[in-house]
C-alpha cells in the first residue's frame, strides 16, 4: 500500500467517524449550553443580544472572553478593569457563551471589542464558545466593516495547534472586514510565559487604543470595585457558607425525578454532591501517592460514557486559608453581600456569604502568583518595602528568580517580602476581583459505563513537592483533598500530611466523604465496532481511561459470551511506570486477561529498574511490524497522559513505524498520523 492509499482510507474513515459520532457531537455541544444562573445576575431580562445590552447599560467598550478553566476570563476581567481604572471607559466584560452575535455588525464603530480566547483539544474553542465559532464560520466578507478589535489568545506550545482558536477567530474576523488594533497576542503556558505575554500585548494594545480613542489617563487612579458591598449581621438561610451552588442552600429545594434521582443538569453551574464509596492508595512507594476514588452517582440523573472526564470541585486546605486570612488581617466571620453595579456584571460567587467561606471555597489562593497581581498591590505595600515591590512588579527576571522560583503563593510571597509581617489595608473587594475563582479539576474517568453505570472511578496522582530550602511545599489542592479523604476513610494517620481540610463542608454538606462533581463529555471513545483492534498508550496516570476501555470490553464479553470474544479485535496496552511500586492496577490486568485471553495484552515499560530508560515508545518500536499490521487492519490509536513530552515522543514513534514499515518518507508518515487524528483514528487525551 502506498501513502496515497493510506491517506484515502484515513479520509474515508474521517467521514465515517463524523457520521458515527454525530449524536455524541450534538450531545457534547448541547451539554455545554447550561443556562445562566439568574442568581448570579447575568443581565436583567435575559436577553442574549449583545448590542442591546451594551446600549441599555450605556457601555462604550466591550471585552469578550472564551474560557474553559477561567484563565482567559481572568485576563479579560483584568483588562477591562484596567481600562476602567485608567481611562474611565465604561467597559462591559462578558462570556462569549452568554450572548448571540447576530447584531455585532450593528455595533457602533466607536465601541472597540477585545477578545480573550483560550484553546483546547485540537486547536478548538473552549466548550462554551462553540456558538461563537459557529457565528465566525458563517461570516461573509465585509459583514463586520464596523468592527475594530484586538485579540489575545491563551494556549500552550506543548500542543500541536498552538492558540488555534484565537488564530482562527482573528482570521475569520479580518476576512469579514473587521480591523485589528495592534497584533495578535499569544500567551504560552508551555514556556510558562502567559503572564509576560499578556503584559507585553496589553501595553502595546493600550497605547494604540489611547491614540485611536483619544483617551487621557487619570493619574491618581484608585481601586474602585465593580460591586456594591454591604455588611450583614446574621447568617440566614440564604447566606452561603461555601455551598457550591444555590441549589444547596438550606432553603432551596433540590429537584428529583420519578425514580427519586436528583435532577440535573450537573455542570459548572451546579455539581452533584456524590458519596465516595471506595477509596484506596494505589502506590507502594513511600515518596509518592496515587489515589483511586469511586463516586456513587446512583442518586442522580448523571450518566457518563467510557472515556469521559470527571470534574471534582475542591476546597482550600485549613493551612492555606488561615495563612491567607492572617496576611490580609481578614475576619472570617464577616458576613457580607455584593450587588452588581449594573446588569452586565456577574457576581463572582453565591451571595450573601462570609469572608471565611469565600477564602475556603470560592477563591484560588494557593496557585503561583503573577507579576500583574503584585503590581495591583503596590499602593498597599508597607512603606519600607514599597520600592522593592515596585521594582519586582516591573522586572520580569527579578520576579522570576525571587518569587516564581520559590513557588510562592500570594500569601507566601507577601509574607516573605515583608519579613513575615502582615499587609493591612488591602481592600477585600480588590482581593475578590483580583484572584481567580477556585475551579473544578478534571480527571479521565477510569471506570466503564457498561461495567459500572452507577459509579465513577478516578485515578489521581497526588501533587506534593516539598522544598527543604524554602520550607514551601507545592501542594495540589484537589489531589491532597482526595488523599485526606482516603486516609480518613481507611483510618490512616493524618498527622504527617502537609495539609488538612474541612471535610464536613458548608453546613455538613460533604459529611462522610462526599464531594461535588460533574461529568464533562469528551470525544475519547472506543470504536463502536469491537472487531476493530485498538492500540492504547498510557504511561503513569495516563492509563486511567484505558482501565475504563478494558473494563468495557471485559463487561461486553461477560455479557455476550465467549463466542463474541472470537470476533473481538485485539487490544494492546502500552503502559509505563518507574518501577513495580508505582505499577498501577497491577493485579487487575491479570484478571482481565483471564477473560479476554489473548485479545488483551499489556506491555510494560519500567523506566527505572535498569541503567537505561525504557519508555512506552521503545516498546512500540520493538514491535514495529506487529503495530504496522494492526494499523493496516484499521487499528485505532489512543494516547493518554503527559502532553509535554510523552505524547510527542509517542507520535514520533508511530510515524517512525509507518515510515520504516511502509516505505514512507518521514514527512509522509507524519502526514498520515495527522490525517489519522482528523479521522478520529488517533485520539489523544493529554494534559
Ligand atoms: C482533560 C484532563 C484530564 C486529566 N486527567 C487526570 C487523571 O486521570 N489523573 C490525574 O492525576 N490528573 C489528571 N489531570 C490533571 C488534573 O486535572 C489536575 O490538574 C491535577 O490533579 C492537579 O490538581 P490539584 O488541584 O491537586 O493541583 P493544583 O492545586 O491545581 O496545582 C497544580 C500544580 O501546581 C503546583 N503548584 C501549586 N501551588 C503552586 C505555586 N504557588 N507555585 C508553583 N506551583 C504550584 C502543584 O504542586 C501542582 O503540581 C487531568 C487534566 C485534564 C485537563
Ligand atoms: N513534564 C514532564 O516531563 C512530565 C512527565 C511525566 C508526567 N508529567 C506530569 O506529572 C504528573 C504525574 O505524572 P504520572 O505520575 O502520570 O507520570 P510518572 O509516574 O512521572 O511517569 C510515568 C512513566 O512515564 C515515564 N516517562 C517520562 N518521560 C517520558 C516520555 N517522554 N515518554 C514516555 N514515558 C516517559 C516515566 O519515566 P521516568 O520518570 O523514569 O523518566 C515513568 O516511567 C502528571 O500531571 C503529568 O502530566 C510530567
Ligand atoms: C486538555 C487541554 C488541552 C489543551 N489544548 C491546547 C491546544 O490545542 N492548543 C493550545 O494552544 N493550548 C492548549 N491548551 C492550553 C490552554 O489553552 C491554556 O492552558 C489556557 O491558559 C487555558 O485557559 P482557560 O483557563 O481560560 O481555559 C490545552 C490545555 C488543556 C488542559
Ligand atoms: C429588556 O427587553 C426589552 C424587550 O426585549 C428591551 O426593550 C429592554 O431594553 C431590555 N432591557 C434590558 C435592561 O436589557
Ligand atoms: C425560606 O423559605 C420559607 C418558606 O418557603 C420562606 O418563607 C422564607 O422567606 C425563606 N427564607 C429565606 C432566608 O429565603
Ligand atoms: C435573605 O433572607 C433574609 C431574611 O430572611 C431576607 O431579608 C433577604 O431579603 C433574603 N435575601 C435574598 C437575596 O433572598
Ligand atoms: C431555614 O431553612 C430550613 C430548612 O429548609 C427551614 O426549616 C427553616 O424554617 C428556614 N428558616 C427560615 C428563617 O426561613
Ligand atoms: C527550592 O527552592 C529554591 C529556592 O527558591 C530553588 O532554587 C530550588 O530549586 C528548589 N528545590 C527544589 C527541589 O525544588
Ligand atoms: C503546558 O502543557 C504541559 C503539558 O500538559 C503541562 O505539563 C504544563 O504544565 C502546561 N503549562 C501550564 C502552565 O499549565
End-to-end distance: 35 Å
Tell me, briefly, the overall form. Answer: globular
Mind describing the biggest β-sheet? 6 strands, parallel
Structural class: alpha/beta
Helix content: 25-40%
Report the strand count. Answer: 22
Strand content: 15-25%
Unreliable spans: 18-44
CATH class of the largest domain, please? Mainly Beta
CATH fold type of the largest domain: Elongation Factor Tu (Ef-tu), domain 3
Mind telling me the CATH superfamily name of the largest domain? Translation factors
What number is the mean pLDDT? Answer: 92
Bound molecules: flavin-adenine dinucleotide, NADP nicotinamide-adenine-dinucleotide phosphate, flavin mononucleotide, 2-acetamido-2-deoxy-beta-D-glucopyranose
Radius of gyration: 26 Å
Number of domains: 4
CATH architecture of the largest domain: Beta Barrel
Continuous helix count: 22
Please, could you describe this protein's structure?
The protein is of the alpha/beta class. It has 4 domains: 1-33; 36-213, Flavodoxin domain (Rossmann fold), CATH 3.40.50; 224-523, Translation factors (Elongation Factor Tu (Ef-tu), domain 3); 534-686, 3-Layer(aba) Sandwich (Rossmann fold). Helix content is 36%, strand content 17%. The chain contains 22 helices and 22 strands. The strands form 5 sheets. Strands 1, 2, 3, 4, 5 and 6 form a 6-stranded parallel sheet that branches. The chain has a 6-stranded antiparallel sheet with strand order 13-10-17-8-9-14. A 5-stranded parallel sheet has the order 20-19-18-21-22, with helices on both faces. It is globular. Residues 18-44 have low confidence and may be disordered. Bound molecules: flavin-adenine dinucleotide (FAD), NADP nicotinamide-adenine-dinucleotide phosphate (NAP), flavin mononucleotide and 2-acetamido-2-deoxy-beta-D-glucopyranose (NAG) (6 copies). Residues 67-72, 118-123, 126, 154-156, 159, 161-164, 189, 194, 687 line the site of flavin mononucleotide.
Amino acid at each position: 500500500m502506498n501513502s496515497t492509499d493510506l491517506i484515502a482510507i484515513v479520509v474515508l474513515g474521517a467521514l465515517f467517524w463524523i457520521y458515527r459520532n454525530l449524536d455524541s457531537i450534538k450531545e457534547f455541544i448541547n451539554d455545554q449550553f447550561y443556562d445562566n444562573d439568574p442568581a448570579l445576575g447575568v443581565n436583567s431580562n435575559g436577553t442574549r443580544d449583545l448590542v442591546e445590552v451594551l446600549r441599555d447599560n450605556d457601555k462604550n467598550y466591550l471585552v469578550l472572553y472564551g474560557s474553559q478553566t477561567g484563565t482567559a476570563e481572568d485576563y479579560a476581567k483584568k483588562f477591562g478593569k484596567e481600562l476602567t481604572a485608567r481611562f474611565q471607559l465604561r467597559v462591559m466584560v462578558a462570556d462569549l457563551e452568554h450572548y448571540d452575535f447576530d447584531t455585532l455588525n450593528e455595533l457602533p464603530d466607536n465601541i472597540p471589542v477585545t477578545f480573550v480566547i483560550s484553546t483546547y483539544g485540537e486547536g478548538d474553542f473552549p466548550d462554551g464558545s462553540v456558538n461563537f465559532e459557529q457565528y465566525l464560520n458563517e461570516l461573509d466578507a465585509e459583514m463586520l466593516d464596523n468592527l475594530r478589535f484586538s485579540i489575545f489568545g491563551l494556549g500552550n506550545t506543548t500542543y500541536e495547534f498552538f492558540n488555534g482558536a484565537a488564530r482562527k477567530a482573528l482570521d475569520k474576523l479580518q476576512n469579514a472586514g473587521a480591523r485589528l488594533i495592534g497584533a495578535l497576542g499569544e500567551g504560552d503556558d508551555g514556556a510558562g510565559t502567559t503572564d509576560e505575554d499578556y503584559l507585553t500585548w496589553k501595553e502595546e494594545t493600550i497605547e494604540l487604543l489611547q491614540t485611536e480613542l483619544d483617551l487621557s489617563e487619570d493619574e491618581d487612579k484608585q481601586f474602585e470595585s465593580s460591586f456594591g458591598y454591604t455588611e450583614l449581621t446574621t447568617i440566614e438561610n440564604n447566606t452561603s457558607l461555601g455551598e457550591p451552588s444555590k441549589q444547596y442552600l438550606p432553603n432551596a429545594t433540590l429537584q428529583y425525578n420519578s425514580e427519586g434521582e436528583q435532577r440535573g443538569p450537573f455542570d459548572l453551574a451546579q455539581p452533584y454532591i456524590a458519596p465516595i464509596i471506595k477509596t484506596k492508595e494505589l502506590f507502594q512507594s513511600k515518596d509518592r501517592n496515587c489515589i483511586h476514588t469511586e463516586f456513587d452517582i446512583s442518586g442522580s440523573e448523571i450518566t457518563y460514557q467510557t472515556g469521559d472526564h470527571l470534574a471534582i470541585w475542591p476546597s482550600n486546605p485549613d493551612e492555606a486559608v488561615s495563612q491567607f486570612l492572617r496576611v490580609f488581617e481578614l475576619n472570617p466571620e464577616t458576613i457580607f453581600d455584593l450587588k452588581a453595579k449594573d446588569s452586565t456584571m456577574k457576581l463572582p460567587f453565591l451571595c450573601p456569604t462570609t469572608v471565611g467561606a469565600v477564602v475556603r471555597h470560592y477563591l484560588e489562593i494557593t496557585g503561583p502568583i503573577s507579576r500583574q497581581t503584585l503590581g495591583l498591590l503596590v499602593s498597599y505595600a508597607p512603606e519600607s518595602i514599597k520600592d522593592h515591590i515596585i521594582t519586582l512588579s516591573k522586572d520580569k527576571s527579578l520576579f522570576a528568580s525571587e518569587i516564581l522560583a520559590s513557588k510562592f503563593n500570594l500569601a507566601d510571597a507577601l509574607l516573605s517580602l515583608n519579613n513575615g509581617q502582615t499587609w493591612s489595608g488591602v481592600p477585600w473587594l480588590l482581593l475578590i476581583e483580583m484572584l481567580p475563582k477556585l475551579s473544578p479539576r478534571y480527571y479521565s474517568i477510569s471506570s466503564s459505563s457498561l461495567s459500572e453505570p452507577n459509579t465513577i472511578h478516578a485515578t489521581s496522582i497526588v501533587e506534593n513537592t516539598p522544598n527543604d530550602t524554602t520550607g514551601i511545599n507545592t501542594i495540589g489542592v484537589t489531589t491532597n483533598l482526595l488523599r485526606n479523604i482516603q486516609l480518613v476513610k481507611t483510618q490512616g494517620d493524618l498527622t504527617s500530611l502537609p495539609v488538612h481540610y474541612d471535610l464536613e463542608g458548608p453546613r455538613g454538606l460533604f459529611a462522610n466523604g462526599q464531594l461535588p462533581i460533574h461529568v464533562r463529555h469528551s470525544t475519547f471513545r472506543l470504536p463502536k465496532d469491537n472487531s476493530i483492534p485498538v492500540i492504547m498508550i498510557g504511561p503513569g496516570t495516563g492509563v486511567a481511561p484505558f482501565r475504563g476501555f478494558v473494563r468495557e470490553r471485559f463487561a461486553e464479553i461477560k455479557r455476550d459470551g465467549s463466542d463474541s470474544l472470537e470476533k473481538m479485535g485485539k487490544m494492546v496496552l502500552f503502559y509505563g511506570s518507574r518501577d513495580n511500586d508505582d505499577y498501577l492496577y497491577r493485579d487487575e490486568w491479570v484478571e482481565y486477561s483471564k477473560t479476554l485471553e489473548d485479545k488483551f495484552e499489556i506491555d510494560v515499560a519500567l523506566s527505572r529498574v535498569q541503567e537505561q530508560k525504557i519508555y512506552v515508545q521503545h516498546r512500540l518500536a520493538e514491535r514495529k511490524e506487529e503495530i504496522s499490521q494492526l494499523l493496516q487492519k484499521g487499528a485505532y490509536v489512543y494516547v493518554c497522559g503527559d502532553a509535554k513530552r510523552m505524547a510527542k515522543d509517542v507520535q514520533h514513534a508511530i510515524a517512525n513505524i509507518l515510515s520504516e514499515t511502509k516505505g514512507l518518507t518521514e514527512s509522509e508518515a507524519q502526514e498520515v498520523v495527522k490525517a489519522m487524528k482528523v479521522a478520529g483514528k488517533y485520539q489523544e487525551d493529554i494534559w
